[in-house]
Structures are given as structure tokens and as C-alpha cells.
């Protein structure tokens, strides 16, 4: 899977104000800013992202995804 493909999948399932991906085709790191994260705990945010991937995590198309998730307000106030 390419970064563009993974971005398209996440972006289609989650409205993102900012989405950056780095990786080697199997191991990925994402920075995601979405209003959907407002008021959500970290584990809830991760579940939202994983839900966009569907079975791609289970079929090993995406072997590993580390992520930093922010609401728009958190992103604007980051140090």
C-alpha cells in the first residue's frame, strides 16, 4: 500500500483538516487532525482511525500504524 492510498482511505472515512503519513509500505506513522476527535479520549480516536481502515489491518495490508491525533483546537495550540 502506498502513502497516497492510505491517505485516501483515512480521508474518505474521517474528515481530516490535516493528515500526514510517513512509512515504508507496511509500517506507518500518521499525524491526523480532525474535528471528529473533539471530546474523544485517545483510545476512542484510535478506534475511529482503525474503523476507516476496515479489514486492512487484519489482512496485513497495513502491518502497523502509529498515530498522533489532534482536535483542531489542540493542533492550533500545540507547542
Give the secondary structure arrangement, pairings included.
Elements: H1 3-13, E1 18-23, E2 27-33, H2 42-53, E3 64-70, H3 72-76
Parallel strand pairs: 2-3
Antiparallel strand pairs: 1-2
What features would you highlight for this structure?
three-stranded mixed sheet, BolA-like_sf, 79 residues, BolA family transcriptional regulator, BolA, GMP Synthetase, Chain A, domain 3, 3 strands, BolA/IbaG_stress_morph_reg
Structural write-up:
With 79 residues, the chain is α+β, with helices and mostly antiparallel strands. The protein has one domain: GMP Synthetase, Chain A, domain 3. It has 3 helices and 3 strands; from the N terminus they run H-E-E-H-E-H. The protein has a 3-stranded mixed sheet. A hairpin with a 3-residue loop joins strand 1 (18-23) and strand 2 (27-33). It starts with a helix and ends with a helix.
